[in-house]
Amino acid sequence: MRFHEVNFFLKLAGALLLTVGAWFATDWRLGVPLALATLGFLRIAQVPGIKAYLKGAALLVLLVQASWVVNLMLQGQPALQALSMATGMSARLVTTTAAFFFVMETSTPGSILAASSAARLPPVATLVLSLTFGIIPMLRDDFERIADAQRARGMEIDDVGFLVRLRFALARGVPLLVQAIRMAHSISLSLSIHGFDMREKRTTWRKVGLMVEPRLPKAQDRLP
Amino acid sequence: MLTLQDVSVGFGDTRPVIAGACLELARGQRLLVCGAAGSGKSTLMQTVAGIIPRLVPAPLFSGDIRWEGRPMTSVSREELFTSIGIVFQNVEDQLWDLGVEDLIAFPLENRRMPKHQVRQRIGILMDEFKLDELRGRRVLSLSGGERRLVAIAAALAGSPRLLVLDEPTTGLDPVARLRLVATLNRLRAEIPSLLIAEQDPSAVQAVVDAVSLLKSGRLAAPEPVGDLMGISAAWQDACILPPRQRRHKSSTRATGRTLLSVAALCTELKRPDGTPVLVDVGLDIRAGEIVGLIGRNGAGKTTLFQSILGLAPIASGMITIAGEPAREWTTARRARSIAYLPQNMRRILFNMTVLEEAVFAITAGRKDANPPITLSRARAALARYGLSEQTDTNPFALSSRQQALLGLACAEAAGSQLAILDEPLLARDLDGRRMLDLFLATAMAEDRAIMLISHDLELVDDVCSRVLLLDEGRISFDGPTEHAWDCHAYGRLGWPGPRQAEPTEPDHALS
Q: Domain ABC transporter, which positions (chain B) (predicted)?
């Protein structure tokens, strides 16, 4: 299935529905299977970056489980009940983040711009959607690029313990911030010199329906 | 069409970057501005295009700029950026994560052009620039040269009345350069006026009518390009290497100690047709030699050094560093033997000051056994490359030229046995070349080795004792530099040799 070509708003609507479902499924016995099914879908769909997402999701689950169980027990809840409530919350968060991770990873800023322009959304909404869903993968790529730069200059960040690796990862925050500012400047410059106007609705070169055309046909296949 | 009268621009330093520049650009005129790195070319180009001071404020800005007879300040932003297109030297500064077609279409979509017309225009430009293979690709996944061509196509999309190109041939291989020149000539009717900034005039000689030399922010009067090409003194006075003149021939020789050996390397990274980017690469780099690596844009040069450093996974093959198999080595361990200097140094800078960068080059982030000695080494390396005054500056605040010098200082301070220089920006102006020569001479004196990746064939011819040609995923030529330009593999590229006049109609070489 060409998930990258599915209209962004369809994917967004699907993610929202799934999230609403997850938050209504208060019982962990419903929430956990839903979370697992969502993760299974990501796996089957071969969404890029899933390994990194799973690591983050595992960390999130650990933090939620630990903090909720301790907190609820301090409030006098029995351990088993505290565990079931914490598990339910973890499951909701996993389902929610997985659903939006899918939307983010399978939607390029270009396809979001096209879907928004075809829907005749105001330019400000077009821009906000494109940047919100587009900038996170860009920042993640920059985070990886900085790590590669550290490696390429001899800094050992792979063959070290988890805590040292975590410390090095946190140390990338400052250069990442510098890079984020530069990126914002580039985007702003690009919008200005290419005439992006907040007052005028845009057109799009892509054919947009339930699917969004990913590329212009080859020269010989283009209609006159 | 465009008039600059006594324009000065400065960013807070003691002297302005542009000092009292005067320029008249008539409709139909095509002007080349040549100057050394740091002479103020980019500032001038951005001023002419209205970026400075409208989008990028300058603390010092004076003088009068008129666009089509009106003060530029009175021209609306939409009208200004519709009528003037610009491509920056650092093309990444104007790109974001759009697709190739998205970027070309962006200005047209913003102007509410109907879909069929936008598609037609994209098609014309992609055909013109031979970008068909890049359809559907994300711009940030392209090679530097490919990005630049897409950015130029995007700047042309809206049919500007003035096109401003800042170092447009940077990162382009000779055929892509010829294609760009041919396209600019073919579109003569569509682009009424053209302003180009370059260090090397020979690359764009065929598309311009006149040249203005820029030295320390001062712009000389334009002269016919043909008149100026052969006058060495004029170029030297502007601190630029005279075009098509040999500087000196390298007399390096390998001492026999192999520092890097690559055998039967095949990458996991594949091309769109499913073939690996590198299929069967083998090479040796020995101490005491400077080896040039050349190849088309997208040939896999970047993938090759990434594979050597362990940043790109390999499917098979053997990498040996200083006699030891490096397959299981981490990237950091490999990097302690191999220093890498990309063209855009921003990619590998991440410390907060220049001095910290140099210290990091020596310590690689490990605990420093002797901080005073390390600091002293770092300061000495920075001083050698003229960066003593910038030790506390943030590396991102340096100019591209200063960042390139910082790269040399860091590589020297690190003392790596092999340095990979990817398209150094310093090769075309006298001061920059002096620094590059200093770096190369120091490396040779210390029996190290250099791999120089470059499309600047004159530089390769000048400084390299051996040339490797990467084509179709393999090293198709490995031999002495003097034999490289006549070999069969080089002939297949269809490139002119170093210092040869470029053909005016290159299409036979493009297929």
A: 2-241, 260-497
